[in-house]
Design goal:
By secondary structure, the chain is α+β, with helices and mostly antiparallel strands. The protein is 20% helix and 22% strand. It has a two-stranded antiparallel sheet. InterPro entries: Ser_inhib-like_sf (IPR036084), TIL_dom (IPR002919).
Amino acid sequence: MKYAIVFCLLLVALCYASKECGENEVFNSCGSTCIPNEPSCRPRPIADVPCPAVCSPTCDCASGYLRHHSGKCVTKENC
């Protein structure tokens, strides 16, 4: 069972790694799938929700950009 889970995670990582990131995004091979750790246009909710320390491939906003509620990365002026 343990090996099946690891295999599935690796398969998902390989599939995601082949995907290109969007405009103003950069690929992060060890990102987090928890509540976004990147800056966003919305205030971050305060919650004590545990987040597992597991690397997942993600597309994060490039430096100087914030995650808009539409999902795109925009400048602060366009929030």
